[in-house]
Amino acid sequence: MLRVLCLLRPWRPLWARGCASDGAAGGPEIQVRALAGSNQGITEILMNRPRARNALGNVFVSELLEALAQLREDRQVRVLLFRSAVKGVFCAGADLKEREQMSEAEVGVFVQRLRGLMNDIAAFPAPTIAAMDGFALGGGLELALACDLRVAASSAILGLIETTRGLLPGAGGTQRLPRCLGVALAKELIFTGRRLSGTQAHALGLVNHSVAQNEEGDAAYHRARALAQEILPQVDIASGMVIEGICYAQNIPTRDRLEGMAAFREKRPPKFVGE
């Protein structure tokens, strides 16, 4: 772990709105860090709400929305990786204890916020990867489905289990799962609320990679980071357009550009001088 941490810039804690944080040692429930060295360009979002197993509560969602808003404007982010700082769990889904205290109107507003969160992840301008080293249930799997790529430990447990609670997926699961697996299989998994191991999820095509878990409990994270490193040399179209604009701006004041335009107008070969 020290070898990894020494490559990181300092934590960028995010302000927690609303009630007190459930993060470890009273810290933020969402933490953001940018990797350096050979990992430069990879940014990690760590979910850190251990007492609630990273359940999607109000503070948690607010901090995650804030993190995404900040990172969207950061052009240093080439790959965004979602992982858990809580061993054995990725995200246990919606915080049902918190939801029990809400009125029907408040539940409706909160579910809309969850749906907006997943849409923000899906629309993030850089590639996104979910590293699932443990339980990813309900809204936790919906979060992973919103990412471009998914990696799971073989021992991870995944499922849209809402129907077993008298609910239904409300944060995009009914739309993203069929697009990932096909309508018939998605219906079966949603109707039954079936839980899948990481190995089973890989066999169905729900995750890109499944890896045997290690003693530290972070095998999926290491595979996801290796995948992110493969992506780093690629340039997304938005970044490519920016690079093109910078290069074109450098060309505008050159003598050769003016000579090229004059030669075209005068219907003669240009005489470039390299200036």
Note down, in words, how this protein is organized.
The protein is of the alpha/beta class and 275 residues long. It has 11 helices and 11 strands. The chain has helices spanning 2-5, 58-72, 96-100, 104-122, 139-146, 173-181, 183-192, 198-204, 219-231, 237-251, 255-266; strands at residues 12-13, 30-34, 42-47, 79-84, 89-91, 128-132, 135-137, 149-153, 157-159, 196-197, 209-211. Strands 1-2-3-4-6-8-11 form a 7-stranded mixed β-sheet, with helices on both faces. Strands 5-7-9-10 form a 4-stranded mixed β-sheet. The chain is elongated, with a radius of gyration of 23 Å. The model is unreliable at 1-21 (pLDDT under 50).
Q: Mind sketching the topology for me?
A:
Layout (H helix, E strand, L loop, with lengths): L1 H4 L6 E2 L16 E5 L7 E6 L10 H15 L6 E6 L4 E3 L4 H5 L3 H19 L5 E5 L2 E3 L1 H8 L2 E5 L3 E3 L13 H9 L1 H10 L3 E2 H7 L4 E3 L7 H13 L5 H15 L3 H12 L9
Parallel strand pairs: 3-4, 4-6, 5-7, 6-8, 7-9, 8-11
Antiparallel strand pairs: 1-2, 2-3, 9-10
Helix pairs in contact: 2-4, 4-5, 5-6, 6-7
Spell out the key features of this protein.
275 residues; alpha/beta; seven-stranded mixed β-sheet; four-stranded mixed β-sheet; 11 helices; 16% strand; elongated
